[in-house]
Structures
1.
Amino acid sequence: MPGPARLYWAVVFFIVAIVAGIFGFGGIANESAAIAKILAVIGIVLALVSFLFHRRRWSRN
């Protein structure tokens, strides 16, 4: 990776870290964690439903 590209990504990750720190210390992290838990449960349920329907379709053939 050339030098300028490496510097670019270093700056990008530094800015992301600063923004994450601001959100973490600002109290937004609790709400984000609650939303993430809900989305994780929804994702797991959808994955299980998809798996069951896929299995059911293959068992008929």
2.
Amino acid sequence: MVKLEELLDLASIKTGLSKEEILLRIRNKQKELSGLVSEEGAAYIVANELGVKTKNRVVESILKLKELKPEMKSVNVMGRVKSIYGPREFTTKTGIKNKVVNMEVVDSTGVGRVVLWNMHDIEKVEKGLIKAGQVIQVKSGYVRESSFTNSLEVHVGSRGVLIENPDGILGEDFPKIGGVENGQRRVKISNLKENEIKEVRAAITAHFGNNFVHEMCENCNKKVTSGKCEKCGGTKTNKLLILNLAIDDGSGTVRAAVFRETAERLIGLKAEEAVNQQKVKSQLEKLLGSELIFEGKVKRNEQFDRLEFNIFNIKEVKTESEIEQLIGEKNGKS
């Protein structure tokens, strides 16, 4: 990635403007965007507006995950792949079969979700060209807010593209997967705090509700209840599986929501199969008392004024890993 000083030099040479004038434009751009982008991010935007190119390509602004805002379009982000879910096949109401891939990615500011819709990039996943641990770049993605988790997702549609191991990017610029997990140290449920991304080891003690499958707008990812999206007017939908649980680790109990592929893996049913409520309940009953490791983000339910855990990954309890975890915790305290 071109550094700020190098970009200033290049822009000055290409445009004839002084570095001071370009720097002023960068700061004005930051103000214009209400501080949503870093100085370097604003520099890429200004360079793009000035038509400055590097290595025969127009310079593009790279946003950090924490800089994303709802409804942003043509965004460019980079991160290291933490985990991949899919490809998952689904059938639209019109009978068209499609695929989707969800990925958790990390950068220096946090964890985010990337959703792949175009077959070109999905085929890369199927061929093993994109895998956990790699650094990726998303170009021309668009941002959607999940109706259920209130978290932001970068979607890659027909106009977007995903680049694996982009040129000129140093892997050490992005957190190692192990480093991220160490930074998200496991905690007790009683110590969960709002907006944290944490891991807990707990048992499933209850499940709630009867409506497990929800219709989501294919265009804007909002919940559709009357056959037509109230936000964008779209009529094409995808099925989304959501499970509501209670998990307990002895220190406390927390309501937990499990979404998409993670929910499908937990009960062994696809969203299309989960329309059969009895099948879902039967699988959930079998899971009662099961002790698992849950990764997720803590959110506050404003309606009930309580903390809840939105789970994005579930792992089995493995003796070897648990021993390493205990040794790590012991060394960290010593």
3.
Amino acid sequence: MQNEKHKNNLKALKNNSQLTFSISTTSSTSSTHTIELVYPNKPLLFDDQVSQAEILWALKSVQNAFSYKNADDVGEVFRTMFPDSKIAQKFSIQHSKMSYSISHGLGPYFRDLLIKDIKNCERFVLCFDEETNNQNKKQLDLYFRYWSSQKGLVVTRYYRTIY
């Protein structure tokens, strides 16, 4: 019972189910990043376009150190700014959804990219920063410093925090 339209829709869904991001650093000492979405050949389904918009907002929030609470009203702002946009009408991200998307979706994705990049280098330095945070809790931040063959320079990348 699978007709041609069903097969094409299934192919489009499979081809667009994973978002691929290219991240480039403006300089080796700067923390400013440019996030560029690499689009597949076929257009995304509408629900995937909405998810893409929500993910891009989450990435922008991380990039600019916005608080998660900032996401609570942004959907309403987008609907007011872009009343003719169907994506803006469906855009719905709250602080809890954004937190979950970042920690359980985007975080593991970028951690895997970091690990792949480190496996491609001959040597690396594991850096750490131990401190007591504002809740009087000890925290250990781990960073890797290594030659990234992908970027062609030495990079320092955050890996994780241990409490």
4.
Amino acid sequence: MRIEVAGNRKRNAVSAALHVGAMTAVLFLAGCNSNGTSSNDFVDNIEPADRLYNQALADIDGGNIKEARKTLAEIDKQHPY
């Protein structure tokens, strides 16, 4: 009976050490930023809807319908309400 208890203690100690090591590795790697990108690189530049709308109107007045269509689509993308 004592042999089993000693074996279980040893197994529990090894298991605990592995868990601590794994968590340490995860936390260490989570803090790494290897490619140098910041969170700002993932955020789109959002222009006010009125500025985009006025640009689209100017494009329509200038006869540039394709560019106006792109600008109006950008309004829908950035301001979907």
